[in-house]
Amino acid sequence: MQQRTFRISIAQVRGLLIVNLPYPLSDAMLDELAIQLRERLVKCSCRAVIIDVTAVALLDYGAFQAIENIARCNQILGAATTLVGIQAGVAIYLAQCPFESGLLRFTRNMEKALQLHE
């Protein structure tokens, strides 16, 4: 079985890691994101991870659980996690989905997210 590696763009800006999630999301891509973020956070000691989900139109339970697990790991490594650019379909799902409110922050746009973590 051939293993597929995903290229995920993670930028470091002002002590923050910024990730743009593509759509559609896959389990393998989210697993790779978790690995890359853990490695980067250990090396750079950034204070926050901003995940831009503007391109994500829909979010299912498995994808949300993966994002929540990423946020939990980020928190353990000393970084807060903020989701940016939530679309209507994702907002509806999140309003109905139970999750730990302390793990994730939400902002409308990147500017607000950057202000939140100054």
Note the quaternary state here.
single chain
Looking at the overall shape, the CATH architecture is 2-Layer Sandwich
Please estimate the helix content. 40-55%
Number of spatially distinct domains: 1
- Rg (CA only): 13 Å
> What proportion of the residues form beta strands (DSSP E)?
15-25%
Mean pLDDT: 90
Descriptive terms for the model:
single chain, 118 residues, alpha/beta, Transcription Regulator spoIIAA, 5-stranded mixed beta sheet, 4 helices
How would you characterize the overall build of this protein?
- There is one protein chain.
- The protein is of the alpha/beta class.
- The protein has one domain (10-116): STAS domain (Transcription Regulator spoIIAA, 2-Layer Sandwich).
- Helix content is 42%, strand content 19%.
- It has a five-stranded mixed beta sheet.
- α2 (61-76) links the parallel β3 (48-52) and β4.
- It is globular, with a radius of gyration of 13 Å.
- The model has no long low-confidence stretch (mean pLDDT 90).
